[in-house]
Design goal:
Blueprint lengths: L5 H7 E4 L3 H6 L4 E6 L5 H12 L3 E8 L4 E4 L2 E4 L4 E7 L12
Antiparallel strand pairs: 1-2, 2-6, 3-6, 4-5
């Protein structure tokens, strides 16, 4: 398994995706993240394990299609992103909502 440098691992994971569906997945120990479009499953696994210090069971990815956005007579596209759904092993968890 090739190791990539730690600085590149931090750039792979952009932000967690928090919606109604993804909060239901938290009960099954699955977490959703928006990731770099060029990242593969192996890089995503290494990045999550390095950043959150957890052990990963599986990684599922999907490319979201671009959404059309209209402002007046101008039609554009919202940025599409790659979504990664990470399943952790049972004894691990990630605290996405720190107490403030």
């Amino acid at each position: 398994m090739p190791e990539i440098d730690k600085r590149a691992l931090l750039k792979i994971i952009k932000y967690p995706i928090i919606t109604d569906k993804t909060t239901k997945l938290l009960e099954d120990n699955q977490y959703s993240f928006a990731v770099d479009r060029k990242a593969n499953k192996l890089n995503i696994k290494q990045a999550i394990e390095y950043i959150f210090n957890v052990s990963i069971q599986s990684v599922n990815t999907c490319n979201t299609p671009p959404n059309k956005k209209r402002v007046g007579k101008f039609i554009g596209q919202k940025a599409n992103y790659k979504k990664a759904i990470v399943t952790l092993k049972n004894e691990y968890s990630i605290n996405l909502f720190p107490d403030s």
